[in-house]
Structure formats: C-alpha cells, structure tokens
Amino acid sequence: MDEIVKKLAGLGLPGILLVIVTAASGGIGSSAAVVAALTGLGGPFGLIGGLGVLGLIASVGDVIAGYGIEAILLNIYAERSKTESVRYLLKEIKDLPITDELKAKLKDQLSPEINTEPEEVQPPKTIEIVEEE
C-alpha cells in the first residue's frame, strides 16, 4: 500500500480525485466515470494524457478494495503533508466530493486539535542536604 500511496500522492489532487471516482464508480466496472475522470486528469492533453494514468486504475481499485478509501486518503494526505503546506491541503480537503465525516478525519490528521485539558501538576520535591561529620 505504501508504494501506491506515494505514487498517488505524487499526482496531487488529480490522484485524490482518481481514487474517489474509482471508489464511487465501484471499481473499474463503470467505464464512463473512469473515462470522464481520465479526460479530466489529462488536462490540456485530454483523454490521451489521461491514458498515462490508466495503468494506476487497476492498482488503485485493488488497493481501495483491500484497505478502504479512508485509509488510502489518510495515507496520501499524510505523505503530501511532508512536502506541501497544511493550510493548502486543508483548503483542498474542504472542496473534495466526500462525506463531511471523512473530511473531518482528514483535517484532524493534518492538524490535530491541541489538548486543552489541564494536566495534573505535581508539587515540587523538597530535597534535604545533610552533612555528616
């Protein structure tokens, strides 16, 4: 899983969208959704550019089936947070077409809330120095 996560993290947002579209379409069975995603991923190169990503689809489908989309997205964003701004990633997560619950988990992973519960404070220890004669 680590290898595919690193490859998808290298793709950035298009890789995230590919994972979401592939999972939402039920794997590779729904070719119309995958072709539309590939055309979008191809950018100015259209479907031809998107075909370069085609080799990843089978791997992505297998990994999603084995680990689940939540685990994949959490690992992708953890990997991307090593090289990209957390603020940028949080904005990107906000715009993703996923459930609010999954968005919250992704955001919590990138910027966990600070523990506001007061810790129990131990009183200072008193040390007595005794000179022996």
Please outline the helices and strands.
Layout: H1 2-11, H2 13-24, H3 31-41, H4 46-51, H5 54-67, H6 69-80, H7 86-94, H8 100-110
Helix pairs in contact: 1-2, 1-6, 2-3, 2-5, 2-6, 5-6, 6-8, 7-8
Radius of gyration: 23 Å
Tell me the span between the first and last alpha carbons: 69 Å
| Mean model confidence by pLDDT | 75
Helix vs. strand class: mainly alpha
How would the global form be characterised? elongated
Q: How much β-strand is present in the residues?
A: under 5%
* Main sheet overview: none
Number of strands: 0
Low-confidence sequence ranges: none
- The helix count comes to 8
Q: Strand-and-helix sequence, N→C?
A: HHHHHHHH
In words, what does this structure look like?
The chain is mainly alpha-helical and 133 residues long. Helix content is 64%, strand content 0%. It has helices spanning 2-11, 13-24, 31-41, 46-51, 54-67, 69-80, 86-94, 100-110. Helix 2 (13-24) packs antiparallel against helix 3 (31-41) and helix 2 (13-24) crosses helix 5 (54-67). The longest helix is centred in the middle third of the chain and has 14 residues, at 54-67. The chain is elongated and about 90 Å long. The N and C termini lie far apart (69 Å). The mean pLDDT is 75.
